[in-house]
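Anyone? Bumping this.
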Amino acid sequence: MATALAATNHVAMSDLKGKVDPDWCPGCGDFGVLAAVQKALVDLQIPNHNVVTISGIGCSSNFPGFINTYGMHTLHGRALAVATGVKLANHELTVLVTGGDGDGFGIGGNHFVHSMRRNVDLLYIVMDNQIYGLTTGQTSPTSRLGMKTKSMPFGSVEAPVNPISLALAAGATFVARGFSAEQKHLTELIKQGIQHKGFSFLDVFSPCVTYNHDNTYQWFRPRVKKLEDEKGYDATDWMAAMGKSLLWDEEIPIGKFFERTDVPTLHGAEPVLDDGPLVHADNRIPKDMTRTFIEELM
Amino acid sequence: MGKTFAIGIGGAAGQGVATPGDIFAKIFSRRGLHLNAYNAYQSIIRGGHTFLTIRTGPDRVTNMGDRVDLLIPLNQDAMDRHLGLLTEGAACLYNSETIKPGIAAQGMQLCPLPVSKLADVTRNKVAQNTLAVGAGLSMMGIGFQALEQVLTEQFKKKGDAVVSENIGIARAGYDYAGANFQPFAWPLPMTANRYAVLSGNIAMAMGGAAAGVKFYCAYPMSPSTGVLHWMAAHARKAGIMVRQVEDEIGVVNMAIGAAHAGVRSMCATSGGGFALMTEGLGLSAMMETPVVVIDCQRAGPSTGVPTKTEQGDLWQMLGAGFGDYPRAIAAPLDIGDCFKLIPEIFNIADRFQCPGIVLCDLLLSEGRLSVDPKDLDFAAPIDRGELIMDAPETSASNGDGVYKRYRITDSGISPRAVPGVPGHTHTAASDEHDEDGVLISDEFTNPTKRRAMMEKRMRKVVGIEAAVPPPVLWGPRDADVTLIGWGSTKGVIEEACEILAGQGISANQLQIRWLVPLHGDAILDILKQARHTIIVENNFSGQFARYLRSETSFVPDGHIRKYDGEPFMPHHIVEAVKEQLGGKCKLSVPAHEILV
């Protein structure tokens, strides 16, 4: 099926252009993520009708409307739960989940942890701008201690969550971080995340030019350092990854922190899916089987 | 309903009340008898007090009834609580070495079992239970062979030695009763019928399997957990993906995700879990992705009484998921209906692309009833509605919006393409959107489009109303009193009507199955012919009475409400009807005489 498609239906950037242009503020980091995702899908030649882009609520959660794939723009914090249902119903789909740090690590925190330990086969891209943008500038779970916002005008007294350490601890089998201003690097990570069989977590620094005056492009540029450039960094070493995840302020690692390929995906561990996607299965249970269900009760 | 025989088995949780109940249930149903079982228990794993009532007879048994014929207390507490229930012709079988009886009523038979003389109690801790089962069956006039067969099946896994031991103990009880106790005046008859015995939870799970459900997810919550257990145990055989997930919010959203990808999805919970799912209902409604959610009501509010029944969630259902949107809400009338309703409501949800809500309750969920196997129809019709599951591979990419997921139609139904189908890409959103699925809530709002989209969705309500039948009156057309109930009260109201008729008061019943659509006009047509109307329900405020009034302005002559966590017994309704017909009051709240 794939080869016939490649020959007659080459996936081009124009195929992935959404019905409307993004309504993000000019300069928003999310533009870079959108372009990188589209480029990655073209590089991998995945037909757009086999991709489902699922989001919650927030600026970055408007993403599905801006890319021509199947999309689901769901509820605040709930994208991963919806995505798990989608993937289990049809595991041949490429599932991308897109959202922000509030949506993902605040209200969505519970589903975040459980989706990772289940190793659901999808790529979760969090456009992390350390702020709640769409609701006009409140503190987020990744806002730094002391950051002043409309909801904490005297400065946050709460330490931020560390998404990378959290992902590693929750058992995510692919953990990476990107920066929307580093397009090529980001596109590579997205491709790797899609190709990884299992839960791929990709935290992306995606500065909010309107509300976050602390973590700006200028703030990130001198700090981000690619792990790929570090000789001898072993991305199969979980302890090393954990160590790297704790670095902040002076040096902020980006790139692939960790990957392991020996854990079965959730859909791979389910015998019910041995014969293929659920959506193609027969609705009817064979009569000799239903007869046993009734006999059990007699 | 013809003659019935009821057994009450009481004891602490963990003492083994359930097993004798299961044995009796199997024997009765294999004898071709109907049965109805209700278990009163607490939210505790060991200790407390459990009281299981099993009522059997050759005709359909619709509720737990008004009397206990055989009481088997497994501890002193059970004896103390329930001996007083027994009247003329009833008996009490008990371990005379550990339990002291109270005062026996006139004509009631006390049957002490000297347990340690009949079995080795050091080896077998539940010997008293097995002895009582054997003794009871002897007094009911049932041949020992039936018990031997059930015990063999029950203990097969534990080996021949255990089987023999239990059969030996049962035989000892059986023979002792034959030699020492009076048999019951009415020996249990036999018929050639065969029945399946199941709980409402199992019925709904199987109904889902029959409806082609392929995705079931849940969070454990009493009294809905039985649905998950059946689904999980049969998942591989039935080809159903079953998942237990982190919370009810995850449950409803995961079910919607699976449904969106094209499979029928279902979940079950109780009031508190449903409360967490309400935002998800709105998602299902706005994206127009069907999902079926079951609420097994229990006594509320809040954590309430987790093991007790109530019909208190109606207004939660009606108000769930803010805003106006099409949906279907139905309350199954009995355990057989728990099976039958599921494929029906799925067809509505699929055809009209909306949420379907099943309003069950603990009485049905955890009660057991005998059902004719023919009524467990796995060939029930499956109608997926206007679902697009495939298209040619070479279809254009729909970047130009040729396929409109939310196309405005006369019926309000827009053909639904699932992910994976070429040429139909679109985004489904929880925000308001136009025909293409583009949001009209952020960059562009548009009053004309918003109105059009709301009206499109709400046109589906007309279709749902046409697809669902109005309720029908059961019983004599012209009656002294019309009893109105909804969901699980059907069975007990039926018997109350029979008893009233026997006392010279004619009664009929309007039992509501579909809450939404209600068919208020058809209900009014029926009720305006009624002489005296009384609404019967298991809640404090008369939730259905309030709903009926809000939809039709109808006010009944009286109300019978019970909200102590226990189900109605027929005499509660009979007495309340008589006091209301006598002009004594307009609201009756029967007291429950069984202390459970």
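Late reply, but here is one note on the structure posted above: Chain A has a mean pLDDT of 96.
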